[in-house]
Amino acid sequence: MDNFEYHNPVRIVFGKGSIAELRKLIPANARILMTYGGGSIKANGVYDQVRKALKGRRILEFGGIEPNPRYETLMRAVALGRGKKIDFLLAVGGGSVLDGTKFIAAAIPYRKGDPWAIVSEGAAVESAVALGSVLTLPATGSEMNTFAVISRNSSNEKLAFGSPHCYPRFSVLDPTVTFSLPPRQVKNGVVDAFVHVCEQYLTYENHAPLQARLAEAILLTLVEEGPKTIARPTDYAARANLMWSATMALNGLIGVGVPQDWATHTIGHEITALYGLDHAQTLAVVLPGVLASQKARKRGRLAQCAERVFGVKGGSPARRAEAGIRKIEGFFRSLGVKTRLSEYGIDADRCAVQVSERLKGRVPLGEHEALGTKEIAALLRTRA
Fold first, then answer.
1. The pTM is what?
2. CATH code that applies to domain 11-177
3. For residues 101 and 77, what is the distance between their CA atoms, to the nearest angstrom?
């Protein structure tokens, strides 16, 4: 196991009715900017719950944060926050709203030029406006980590940043608010959480069995509970288990002291930027290709995953590794998530050329730094 430091200050308030706790969680004198997406929180009652909990507080609103939150939209919120001297941000929504709000929090006090440098150049975030969240879509783990992914239309980019200053002060997780989610979003959430675990687990053995078993526990829970959340939308236990699994998948715990990959996410972000696919859809397409491309290096962990998560017994490690890749892709397809570029009307050859070209300055990828532009193009062609 490698040396590590682990600190996670996010307060989690979990369970039915927990939105009412907002009044205790946000300072009474705060000037609040409430951020949200397309307005679904008004249809499902979450908006009313939040406003009731914060009745009498000073609140401004900023809606319209998109899936794959756009820099151009977020900068309007930054201008509002600066002009109104906002000192607390409340993100109400899924991962995109949380990600966008983290950028807003970092950009409001940023005075060294264009805040896009935080994302594009890794410019230091020296401070951020305090933020909290009410999670409505379990998927990204953004409610308990420092990371965010932001898109910019003008340059057709989708890039990530992270800063300890962007940890939410708290996150409210009420599984009942997920009951009305469209099936597509629930499926995407299961896939997103599953791949987050794989990026930290399907690498190589480095004598950290606890992290491995924690990762396997999350994967097993997603395999068991994910289909239930789709078949029975109001099954509280299943939705609660999905919500907590998605949080645990990317709050840093399973990744401490172990090698991590993240090639699938990097490649997937480019496909989203180019073709507009949902983030999880790109992950379901790319992950099997990355695993197959790197199966010799990942053989031990793939075989272990096949056995411990999917119950594959017997055969050589190589055979179990192959079975593990098939089982993972099969799981995605069992949820109704497509795993081939052609199923989205995308030409694999064209995609391979475009993505590999866009990644020229950011390769090699993977825990072994073994994926260059040629390898990326080759694996994408296998996903036709």
1. 0.96
2. 3.40.50.1970
3. 9
